[in-house]
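User: Sequence recovery, please. Input:
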């Protein structure tokens, strides 16, 4: 049915978007490691308190960026799970509606037909 197809499409689209977001984050991991390595080497060779403070600020900015990316991934995961739960509940609701329709259906009329009589 078209309703089922809509649920299926929504689930696939949500899962694909979540995986794309996670893939982008995983792809960026290498460059983030490089950035953190550079910041560490700067901090090890920091001459003077001002350079050390600047490196600290750069590291803090990197941590904020990481937190924002993590928040985005968690949000995507919550959306994906909510979509899945919604489709599961809709499927259960549809099955229950069909059961109720089947068991509450009225029997066809049995009057007005031909009387069965043995013909010997």
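Assistant: Recovered sequence (120 residues):
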């Amino acid at each position: 049915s078209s309703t089922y197809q809509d649920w299926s499409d929504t689930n696939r689209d949500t899962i694909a978007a979540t995986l794309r977001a996670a893939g982008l984050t995983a792809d960026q991991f290498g460059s983030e490691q490089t950035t953190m390595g550079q910041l560490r080497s700067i901090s090890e060779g920091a001459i003077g308190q001002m350079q050390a403070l600047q490196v600290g600020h750069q590291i803090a900015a990197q941590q904020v960026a990481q937190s924002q990316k993590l928040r985005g991934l968690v949000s995507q995961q919550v959306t994906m799970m909510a979509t899945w739960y919604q489709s599961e509940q809709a499927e259960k609701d549809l099955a229950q509606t069909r059961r109720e329709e089947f068991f509450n259906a009225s029997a066809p009329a049995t009057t007005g037909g031909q009387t069965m009589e043995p013909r010997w």
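The chain has two helices and no strands.
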